[in-house]
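anyone seen this seq b4? input:
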Amino acid sequence: MLLSLSNVPRDYAWGSPTLLADLEGRSPAGGPEAEVWFGDHPGDPSDVQGGGTLDAVTDGTLPYLLKLLAAASPLSIQVHPTIEQARAGWARESSLDADDPTRNYRDDNHKPELIVALSERFESLSGLRPVPDTLRLLAALGGSTGVTELTTRLTASGDVLRATIGWLLSGEAQAEVDDVVASVRATAQSDAGEWATTLRAVSAIADTYPGDPGVVVALLMNHVVLRRGEAVFLRAGLLHAYISGLGVEIMAASDNVLRGGLTPKRIDVPELLSILDTTTGEVPVLRPSTAGAVTEYEVPVTDFALKRVALTGGHVDVDVSGPTMVLVTAGHVEVGGTTGDARPVPVGTVAFATADEVQLTLSGEGEAFVASPGPSSSEA
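predicted toks r here
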């Protein structure tokens, strides 16, 4: 069975006033539009054409949540727990009310996620940069007091990134944070060589979040620029933040977020540090196929799988297993299954195939993303 899904954009302050409207070919709503959720998450289940919401169809069992995400300014720096950490945190906080401001865990699930760029440029902070590279960046900033202190902490022994991030977020480093940010601003306006793009990005973040210690945390992270169709997978424990752009995001069905800066919201520094993975290195960029209509973004989790289908006037058959969504992001696309007639799917909406469908046919000219549960696994 095929169902048509839609939803109302969420108006988070960091949302773009134009990106979603431009995608869907409509007039802007007059305020920020940040995310459109497609799923059965109790926070905002999708609307089903004809009446009702998707959770009534699935009984809340979908293992993934699909989103359109439109950022005009940076989201908070954040990290998500492993499933073991989520279960332990959920049990530990079981006595707290759901709306308790000290609650960190909203469920007992992990939240790995994948973001695919829809805009021609999508900027993010993804993972921690190797410390020797960050020391080279700091050397380009000069020798101010804050830069010197930050360098000293990064050249100490032990898990220096965990210790340094804890110091930056402790509230005791504000003078050094302000000094480092001033050095970033000054250097970004000059010839910063290999670090020019990164420093301009961090300087712009500082304009949005003046005085926020997360700006210096951002300085420790990889600045990643995606082009349309490119993606990054963000595993549990990986520090990240989206800066700007339009994308398709898919994640495990969870709302567990620990924040690490660039936010007025509460930051639980000890809990953040307890789940933070300080392994450094670049996050691999997954690129779209240059041969064939289908790109499969391979991810090391079983909660979800995502494919991009580029249609040029013909049709593409896609084998599916389990409840599947087809999100149309460009052009004119029809979706048909084995148990019903093909139907047009407007840009920015979803055709949802229940688990009795085994193959979907996409036709027309445009682009669509096919989301489904990942391959089955014998792991607990």
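The chain is about 25% helix and 30% strand. The longest helix spans residues 174-188. kinda curious what u guys think
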